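[Automated response] Your request has been received and processed.

Submitted sequence:
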Amino acid sequence: MARPPRKLTPDRSARHLFGADLRHQREAAGMTLEQLAEAVRYSRSHLARIETAEHVPPPDLPGRLDEVFGTGEHFARLYAIARHEVHPEKFRRRMELEARARVINEFGGPLVPGLVQTEDYARALFRVGNPKASPDEIDEKVSARLSRQTLLQAEAPPDLSMILDEAAIRRPVGGPAVMRRQLATLVELVDTATTTVQVLPFEHGEHALIDGSLTLMTLDDDTNVAYVEGIGIGLLIEDPETVRARRGSYDLLRSYALSPSKSAAFIRAAMEAFS
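Generated structure:
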């Protein structure tokens, strides 16, 4: 005897509402989970967990659902709210401000910043960060990380400028194949209308941001904020004087980094080492 479908609670959060609307639209269309899985190219079990709000929807699923069900941008709009709920409470304020940012300047320390990580690169980091995590827990974290990247595909994306430490280019996170794909993604962002990537070589030596990462954001009301991060610790800075000091450190570091064209050549040379 088949187990009855789990009761949904759409009033609990946007994430639960997304799942409830997914089941409503699926049943209204007379589709089984298997049929929908084939249509949107996701597994039945993954979709079942999204319906019951156990998993956050991955970034590309809302558009596929709107296409299959003919719901315009319903799921895309709902996802824009629901995606913030997968982040721990202490990071949500940062996510809210990031969504309002018109300019983002980022130094990622020894890692490629989350806004431009590939799925496999992010997955490798989450696995090593918590070796006891289940595959479902890792999938959840990866989806949350990738959800931030919808910002860069927006109609009017923020201007993004990144400084990458040479360590972020050289360390083979996830292995050579994963790292090569990650570097290929970075090359595409080196010098575009809205993105700039520069590499800070080891030869520069010590600098003011050497022990962490820094994100500077200019918001839609011209407010400036900063976010600094260490191992498992993040601090949002909104005090104008402190933000200006962090801005000074970033600007100085950028003056020591390679130009975008030289950075592209540097990254391509590093890719060859992973072939």
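Summary generated for your ticket: The mean pLDDT is 88. The beta strands are 101-107, 159-165, 195-200, 213-219, 224-230, 233-237.
If you did not submit this request, please reply to this message.
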